[in-house]
Amino acid sequence: MFDLNQQIAIVTGGAKGIGKGIVATLIQGGATVVIADIDEAAGKQTAAELGATFKTVDVTSQAACKALVDEVIQEHGRLDILCSNTGIFPQASLAEMTEADWDQMHNVNLKGTFFMTQAALAPMKKQGYGRVVITSSITGAITGYPNWSHYGASKAGQLGFMRSAALEYAKDGITINAVMPGNILTEGLADQGQSYLDQMTRAVPVGTLGKPEDIGYAVCFLASKEASFITGQTIIVDGGQILPESPEAIL
């Protein structure tokens, strides 16, 4: 079960963090993985480390996303899995947030998801099979966090996009789902400092931050042939983070 051999996958934002964890688990499952990222140095390093290939892409460019998919189709003959994972999360208070701050967040997180998914769906529809898995977040759709209102809006927007897209392609052998990570220990989270990491850890009932591979395992399930009857849905991977009514509920 859940054998991804002979499956061709693209993982955007796969050079680091959660994306790297997704790449590692897809490869563990047998998939052939193309890392697509704007960070060429980190992307090539991760590709060499994990046994993937690397291609540069700017997900805010519709033409670049289509060119990436076309190149993968030309080289491999098909595309079975798209993991739309690219995301940014710069902080900005609502009072001080600029239009440029808002646009940058939505261009990368939301428009990038649209461009990559649109590009991947065309060949998937022709072949009558495909799996799209979007990396969203518990922030926005379920929880909120100060200074990330633009981030939360972009992540909630991904889920609205996913549900309608899933309906459009439900009869084409294509499923479109999302994972919603909680507090995952990535390079970006570590950059916030130890006190922030300690605060984030205290919010997780299981007592630890998640690993990027924890997200990857959920992605592998949704990307499998066996998940054919699941579409337009989300899997929360957060160690129970959204469960407590108050901090006192965490034992």
UniProtKB/TrEMBL annotation:
Domain of life: Bacteria
Keyword Oxidoreductase: yes
Keyword annotations of the record: Oxidoreductase
Transport found in the keyword field: no
Family: Belongs to the short-chain dehydrogenases/reductases (SDR) family.
UniProt name for this protein: 3-oxoacyl-ACP reductase FabG
Organism name: Paenalcaligenes hermetiae
The gene coding this protein: fabG_2
